[in-house]
Design a protein that fits this description.
The protein is mainly β. The protein has one domain: Beta Barrel (Porin), CATH 2.40.160.10. The protein is built from 3 helices and 20 strands. The chain starts with a helix and ends with a strand.
């Protein structure tokens, strides 16, 4: 079934529900507002469905500055297009979320017909809160990894995520997760553990590799952020008092079959992968500061086969920091620094990379309707012995979510 078929089915469902409501049968309540989607709630409150659509339109251009000015590349694209359904069944303690792709740029480019379904499905998860503050998740969704990845792509303050996230990203996986939160006065502590296939989104087969264990702990020493502000970037709500969140997570992918575990090219033979993250976010009166550290290792990072190209697991570490300020309630500027460095085991195949990025964003209605433009200065090497290549990347993007 294609995305077009799914969209048509749900729009027919929407029209049917609205016609019944206004036809006098009143089987359910229908309401909505911009940024909150269209909500359907059964008359007996036995279930609900919220439908949301969002897309990002982007224009970008990149050119080398050294060793000489050349290789201008420009593109216009729909960076992301998502259709999302969420709600509850029988009780608000049992919630669900389904999210679908609709953009070529939003799908993995290296999926194979033999092993992978089309990359349309992003999320399909049930979340059951069986104790106050404790829930278990079943299905396919994001793993509890680094903060930049867990923050939705709709809630980024730069045009896109950093090179650190691109290199070390855990992404989504299929399995079971347990999330818990407890309070000690103003101190908030959260823990999450996940056991998943380790092979990523929506695979046809799961017998090639082992499994993946992921654990995360987070502390909010000054209490909750306004409107879950620890998981959207920028201090758009101007926190009246200082707020801080500190987190660490670790993932062990046993006998991974892809270079990034859940992502990347297929290895010629499986290998274990360990990934460590630490991050912090601070917000106060329009100022937002974020820092992340990532480290990945593998006992056999290089995968080779006679007559085929050599592929590798990125064995190395990286840091990502950014600071932003809300100049007005709608205008923001920010600066980001990212550095990713390989270990000696793979430095003959890939070299270090640093990015400096400056962004300006105008928020018409928070993250639901905004325009952003950023410019990056990138220095990278293809290997330790190669020359440094410097380039400039410019991007403009609009983000629309209803």
């Amino acid at each position: 079934m294609s995305l077009l078929h799914v969209v048509c089915m749900y729009f027919i469902f929407t029209i049917f529900c609205i016609s019944n409501v206004f036809g006098g049968q009143e089987p359910m309540k229908v309401y909505g507002s911009f940024g909150e989607g269209i909500n359907f709630i059964a008359a007996d409150s036995s279930f609900s469905t919220k439908i949301r659509l969002r897309f990002q339109s982007q224009i970008n251009g990149q050119f080398d500055t050294e060793p000489d000015l050349r290789n201008l590349k420009a593109a216009a694209l729909i960076r992301r297009m998502r259709l999302r359904f969420e709600g509850f069944a029988l009780s608000t303690n049992l919630q669900y979320k389904v999210q679908l792709n609709g953009s070529n740029e939003d799908m993995e480019s290296n999926r194979t017909p033999e092993l992978d379904n089309p990359g349309i499905l992003r999320d399909a998860v049930l979340q059951w809160t069986f104790l106050p503050g404790t829930s278990v998740w079943f299905g396919q969704t994001k793993l509890p990894g680094n903060r930049e990845r867990v923050v939705s792509s709709a809630n980024q303050e730069f045009v896109d995520r950093s090179n650190l996230n691109r290199t070390f990203n855990l992404d989504r996986d299929i399995g079971i997760q347990v999330h818990n939160q407890w309070n000690l006065g103003s101190l908030i502590v959260r823990e999450a553990i996940a056991l998943s296939t380790g092979e990523g989104r929506n695979r046809r087969a799961s017998s090639l590799g082992g499994w993946c264990f992921t654990g995360k702990a987070e502390i909010l020493p000054f209490g909750l952020f306004t409107n879950k502000g620890e998981y959207f970037q920028g201090d758009l709500l101007r926190e009246p008092t200082p707020k801080l969140a500190i987190a660490a997570s670790y993932a062990f992918n046993n006998q991974a079959v892809r270079t990034g575990g859940q992502l990347g090219e297929y290895l010629y033979s499986p290998s274990d992968i360990s990934t460590l993250f630490a991050d912090a976010i601070f917000k106060y009166q329009g100022l937002a500061v974020t820092a992340e550290y990532a480290r990945r290792s593998s006992p056999t990072p290089i995968s080779s086969k006679a007559g085929s190209k050599t592929i590798f697991i990125f064995d190395g570490e990286g840091i990502n920091t950014h600071i932003s300020y809300m100049i007005t309630d709608k205008l923001q500027c920010g600066l980001r620094y990212t550095s990713v460095n390989p270990n000696v085991s793979i430095e003959s195949l890939i070299g270090p990379r640093t990015d400096w990025t400056f962004v300006v964003g105008h928020y018409f209605k928070g993250h639901d309707l905004k325009i952003q433009g950023d410019i990056s200065y990138i220095s990278e090497q293809s290997s330790k012995v190669s020359n440094i290549k410097n380039s400039i990347l410019t991007r403009i993007q609009t983000d629309f979510t209803f």
